[in-house]
Amino acid sequence: MLKDLFLVFVGGGFGSVCRYALSVWLKPLVHHGFPVHTFSANVLGCLLIGLLMGLLAKHPGQSWQMLLVTGLCGGFTTFSTFSSECFALFRGGDVLMGLAYAVSSLAVCLIMVAAGFWLASIK
After folding, report:
1. Which H or E run contains 97?
2. Helix (H) or strand (E) holding 115
3. How far apart are CA 112 and CA 103, in angstroms?
4. How many Å apart are CA 96 and CA 7, to the nearest integer?
């Protein structure tokens, strides 16, 4: 149990730092309120989690799952930030942009999880 907690802690910390770095790097690309930085973190994180799920299905390992899937991907992706940004768009009266952000995030992220899993299955 302590080992798993430590692995999640290390992976989550690294994932959070990577998300912050991506956010800083992409912040200048935010146009018309669309949160490109959070969208990109979630899309990349979903591709990574799909890839990791596919690889770990072939080579299961509790420690790797705790470190990479629960920790790294959990720290890198950010559903709470996504939700607050959607809410801010709706609250600010930009309902169309909020809907576009919510629908595109869900659709693209589901596709990326499937793509990552598929990529892991290629021999």
Report:
1. helix 95-121
2. helix 95-121
3. 14
4. 40
Q: Report the alpha-carbon distance of residue 112 to residue 4 in Å, rounded.
A: 27
Contacts (Cβ under 8 Å, ≥6 apart) of 23: 37, 38, 41
Reading the block at residue 26, the tokens are 């992409």
Q: 34: which strand partners?
A: 31
What is the chain's Cα-based Rg? 16
Residues whose CB falls within 8 Å of the CB of residue 87, separated by 6 or more in sequence, listed in order: 98
pLDDT tens for residues 100-118? 999 999 999 999 999 999 9
pTM over 0.85: no
Contact 117, 50 (CB under 8 A): yes
Tell me: the pLDDT tens digits for 29-85?
777 788 888 899 999 999 999 999 999 988 888 899 999 999 999 999 988 889 989
